[in-house]
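A student in our group prepared the protein record below, which I am reviewing. I have pasted the whole thing underneath without changing anything:
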Amino acid sequence: MNNSSREERVSSEGMRRSIDHILKTQFGMDPRAVDWTEKAEKKVKDRFKTLDRIREYNQYKVVSAFQKNNISDMHFNWNTGYGYDDPGREGIEKVYSDVFHTEAALVRTQIVNGTHALAITLQGILRPGDELIYCSGGPYDTLEDVIGIRGEGMGSLKDFGIQYDQVDLLPDGSIDLEGVKKAIKPNTKMCCIQRSTGYSWRKAIGIDQVRAFNEAVHSVRPDIITMADNCYGEFLDTLEPTDVGTDIMAGSLIKNPGGGLALSGGYVVGRKELVDRISYRLTCPGIGGECGLMFGQSRTILQGLFEAPAVTVNAAKGAILCGQVYHDLGYEICPSLTDVRSDIIQSVKLGSPEAVVAFCQGVQAAAAVDSYVSPEPWDMPGYEDQVVMAAGAFVQGSSIELSADAPIRPPYIVYFQGGLTYEHSKLGVMMSLSRLLHDGLVQIPEGQN
């Protein structure tokens, strides 16, 4: 191979031989996993074209927001102490506000994760006696302690006399709009939805459903605040929840909008009066968003946002490929092959704890960081069940990077997401299948090798 001409190396067949060689010799890949994935990839190429157009639109939208706010090298400089009058922080929040078409934004390194961003949103707005309704079924596992569904004495909403109700999704996975309207009471203050699947078996909630939800709630009482947990949902459509009537929205910088470069943080965007109240919960009354050091992250947060449309689409393409590969093997997947994708997560019902652990170990083996680690189930803070997590990331916990995780509970569903490049996401899919084949936990249908 080293002595071959360049023309031979870069020919279609030559490149295929080179790729097969490196996958076998450097990654120990089962050739059957490579062939199976290549066949699946041919089936999804047309679906990638739609995502490419969405990526293009969102890239222009982000660049426009940068230009409107005259982002310059000045915004990348450090500040110290209280962070008063930090131009970088102010520039970031103006750009976020313009990208999501809102009155205000709070984008801070002090927000430690998506759960924290959602928690300060709820805590900043709700008061004793108010009611919160989750309208997409139960919230994500880590929010159960925040709300008070489980756990006592930690300062949950329940501890402060805030009531909770939820409206389950309809059997087809859509929001029960009539059920939401019937659930609203005189003391209902907020109605919330979680766009992504979380650890449930459903497709993500698309923008048309978000619009209908906002209209349904506000038709009953215009003063009720609608909130969207937008984790994993950014930049997968030309519209965001705030474009279709959502009052307040929150998410994590180490998911889609951070583009794999933000080192930490979260964001809240929406109506200014609401963002101000949330900022008082993040810091304290009287201070709000006026203080808060960015710790030199302004450049990575802005550059990550610039790259986010492309990175998010790469991850979505990897999720689509994962779905096709495992659907062709006979597994149930969610979303289905024909569903419009509204988050970057692909769920696969593997049916056994051994299979979900092997899948995650295969994804971990595809990582650029900590590839030698073999993930095992453990008691993660904030989760009721043990969780196995493959997360070989440059930024700890960054699930816009290649990752996979699963709660160890029936029916044993694994959740695959991320990939800063499509090729890395594809590698994760192939390695997961190769590991399942190695452990004898899956069979390639006879005659289809």
